[in-house]
Amino acid sequence: MSDRAQRAEEEWKRERPDVDARVMALVGRLLEAAHLLERDWFPPLAAQFELHQGEFDVIATLRRSGKPYALTPTELYGGLMLSSGAMTSRLDRLERKGLIERGPAPGDRRSILVRLTPAGLALIDRMLPLHVANEQRALASLSQKDQKQLGELLTRLVAGLRKPPPAE
Predict the structure, then answer these.
(1) Which of 3-6's residues contact partners 24+ apart within 8 Å by CB, and which partners?
(2) What is the reported pTM?
(3) Is there a domain that residue 165 lies in?
(4) What's the CA gap between 150 and 139, in Å, rounded?
(5) CATH number of residue 74's parent domain
(6) Mind listing the pLDDT tens digit for each residue in 64-91?
């Protein structure tokens, strides 16, 4: 099966045989897959519920944290790999929508907790099965065995990418 990455790999092999075009094609496919997932798979669901993907990520993180569905902003932005500024703007939008509330942490008035409201909990519980079904459709071209293998490979890749690059 020929795809854009394969065509690019073949062209690079012809034009620059000294360059490892195989890795360029592999990274290209990863980036294209991520782009297609972000562009085609989540937006219709987000539009249906009037929620940006980043907002979904926040309420999903709160939901999976377990009762009382509350975390500090630091725990949230650390778990979502965001800057504190980006997290603040997401929290502001979610608070305006009535999906989260911010308040003092019990026992530590200096600390703030972000909590799902009943409306936020109801929304994420409605969205989650649809989101998972959407992801299942997105991966349907891969067998369960392929999905397991891809998961293992991506886990190793992400772990390797998290290591600081070697000094030159």
Answers:
(1) 3/29, 4/28, 4/32, 5/29, 5/32
(2) 0.82
(3) no
(4) 11
(5) 1.10.10.10
(6) 999 999 998 888 887 787 777 788 889 9
Distance, in Å, from the CA atom of 103 to the CA atom of 65, rounded to the nearest integer, reads: 17
For the chain, the domain total comes to: 2
Q: Has residue 168 been placed in a domain?
A: no
Is 163 inside any structural domain? no
- What are residue 95's DSSP bridge partners? none
Contacts of 126 (CB under 8 A, 6+ apart): 49
Residue type, 105: A
Given a cut of 60, whether residue 130 has pLDDT beyond it is yes
Residue with tokens 């490979």: 153
Q: Alpha-carbon Rg of the chain, whole angstroms?
A: 20
Same domain, 99 and 148: yes
